[in-house]
Amino acid sequence: MNILALCTTSTSGSIAICKNDTISFISYLDINITHSERLMPQIDFGLKQSKIGIEDLHLVCLANGPGSFTGVRIGLATAKGFCMAKKIPLLPINTLELLAYNLFGNKLPILSFIDAKMDEVYAALYSQELKEIIPPQNAKPAEFLKKIKEPVIIIGDGVEKYENIIKESRIEYKLALPHQNIPMASTLISIALKKDIPKYDFNFIANLEPYYLRKSQAEILKESK
To answer: Order of strands across the sheet with 121-126?
Structure first.
């Protein structure tokens, strides 16, 4: 199985390539360059290093949000372009699920907690087996934490920003290690290899929308007027 995985849901971004069921290339950048500038060159470089072409891919896997509105749009547009041009199946993955997979095999339920700006988070709770306990939602940190009734391990960039609120919530928790808080494209490959690979479906790909969980600030301002 040859897979191209893309994750552009945050200011950092990563791509990964799987060749013959083995991860052959990983690129991660957290620098002041936009996804539109760095994504295509890194994909091209990764494919060359892996000695495969777009036509050799069996699947494109994408972190489809929630996260940065611009980053998610760029990642989805890029994935759609490859898939529709070469008739490659597309597998979108929720960013909160992606983060939870970084703690696969953990002994505690996993709380994915992403900073959504505007004093809000994107959050979801998963079991140790990665089954959904509390579905993904956009909420104020304190309000979401009221739903937590058991010890958890928390992962995501929302931890650092809202750690005082987490402490004040009095839930019992542990924190993921810093490297685990990064949504990585290589994790997408691990997820894809565990799932049934979809068939190419033009209509599904054409109609697929970013998983934003909330309206953009521009949409909110427009509606308020």
So the answer is: 132-139, 121-126, 110-115, 152-155, 173-175
Model confidence pLDDT, tens digit, residues 106-145: 899 999 999 999 999 999 999 999 999 999 999 999 999 9
CATH number of 3-95+182-224: 3.30.420.40
Q: Which CATH architecture has domain 103-181?
A: 2-Layer Sandwich (3.30)
- Checking 116-125 for CB contacts under 8 A at 24+ apart, the result is 116/66, 116/158, 116/213, 116/214, 118/217, 120/214, 121/158, 121/162, 122/66, 122/67, 122/95, 122/96, 122/158, 122/213, 123/96, 123/158, 124/94, 124/96, 124/97, 124/100, 125/152
Q: Where along the chain do the CATH 3.30.420.40 domains lie?
A: 3-95+182-224, 103-181
